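Quick question about two entries, pasted in order.
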Amino acid sequence: MTLTRPASAAAHREAVPRRVLMCRPTWFTVAYRINPWMHPEQHTDHELAMRQWQHLYDTYRSLGFEVELIDPVEELPDMVYAANGGFVIDGVAYGASFVYPERQPEAHWYNEWFKQNGFELREPRHINEGEGDFLLVGGVILAGTGFRSDSSSHAEVAAAFNREVVTLRLVDPSFYHLDTAVAVLDSAAAGPAAIAFLPEAFDEASQATLRERFPGAIEVDRASADVFGLNAFSDGKNVVVAAQATSMHEQLKDAGYTPVPVDLSELKRGGGGIKCCTLELR
């Protein structure tokens, strides 16, 4: 496909340091298969995963982020993907409810962390996988469905935060969470190049919605999406992005962002990348 370059090539970007929650991959391994990226028959290089995660942590600290940590729990290898632990706005944490039994116990530990750290917890009635399927941009919550989060959770999250929620339907199982198919680049306002996305990850109606709401959005190629380039995290200027997503790096530069490449290739083997390892605490 032809890469779409936004019209706002000379846009001035402002960095706003973030507060995030992460979980060390102490018990990370690929022990089962609940997404197309996972192959438990292949060896997991645990030491490499630890080094790559530490580099992401150090990168955030170098950007001035406040990084909180939740203790990893043995027998929960996917707990490293903190984004799925909930969705937080204005001190309110909407808890997660996981589809697969292998991950369901994670919800308890994340809920306990929220309560112990002063967040107002809203426990869910419907299946949702936290910030994996809920993204805040310009005051609007983009909400994914199709593979993990139930669309019924969209009304629930709208009520929890009293914000508009826009439902987007994912159709490619390789991009089973919204944060693998959409990157929020500027969450302050829905201006030009506020997001990047992979069109074919969505049904036609959702593609039309994204283009209508974000006419200057960056549309990335499949090669960048396949290396989890869209599973990125931005402070409004610096975009921490998969090192392998080189064509996306150029698109980000053209739009006034500074790509900060990080390699999480070993953690990608569990089906997660930079954003998956990052839960924003607003």
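Here is the second entry:
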Amino acid sequence: MRRTAPGQGLTGLPGDGAVVIDVHSHYVPAGWPDLGEGQPWLRVDSEREAMIMVGATEFRPVRPNAWDAGVRLADMDDDGVTRQVVSPTPLFFGYELPGARAAKVARIFNDLALEICQPSQGRLLPFAQVPLQDTDAACRELDRCRESGHLGVEIGNHVGDRDLDDEGVVTFLQHAASIGMPVFVHPWDMPTSPRLDRWMARWLTGMPAETHLSVLAMILGGAFDRLPDSLRICFAHGGGSFAFWLGRLENAWHRRGDLIAKSQLPPSAYVGRFSVDSVVFEPSALRLLVDTLGASQVILGSDYPYPLGERPVGQVVHRSDSLSDHDRAAILHGNAERFLGLP
């Protein structure tokens, strides 16, 4: 039976009626079937404590805010958040698996995401995952998830050595655009080395670098030239360092076109083709995003419930004196409504 689409029958909204939509949060189920050797599993330590494991290695502690709709909704009420997009935790993508096995993993987590969001009366909006290494299987799973009630899809920023300009990935993005499913791009599988294995450096430098690289791949690799304007795509963590270094990229496109000018237009011509979230923490960084990409391309995100996320949600937007009331409202909800296709 088709489930009620998220956002329909929405009741009991918090606060004073101001709409706030968070497009960047993650879930972890309270348990899942055995995924096979070397795949993630959950070690339950108590009613309120669990540990994501990969083999015998501890990956990340999690609490009920990762799977309990009641806890999430209470936190949303505290922060004045109306709706929240709930996306997979990238560890579970399974891009290293054979396509058929990854498709099975995607089905398991996508169905569990619906169960987590179901009690929320449409306030929690599920995003799916797909076996992106197998284009046909990814398109089939996206179709299934759209019919089941998912509002969009989260993908990793690369599949092994294949960036987002890879033909198979572009074909998937074309399909997402054709059926009106928004795409949220999240960095994952960051490089590791002795220099990056200190101070959470893989997360503090590797994640922004991965996101920056994936935006470059879509521009310089000509992906945007092959994709329709109707594609709604958003990059996590403020698009990494892209906004700060757009001038360097533009300069290189004009001065070293023999090496990088593969796109039909210079890089600055594509800034209206994608959005970024607001997880940059400082008003000065948010101002740079707005000045570089435009307020219409920045959408509120939090990275809830993880420690490197923003709490209270949206504080960087509320603290940014440089924003007009119109731009603040666009970032808090208007841009998300357009991205998500909400009425």
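Reply: Confidence is low (pLDDT under 50) at residues 1-15. The radius of gyration is 19 Å. Hope that helps.
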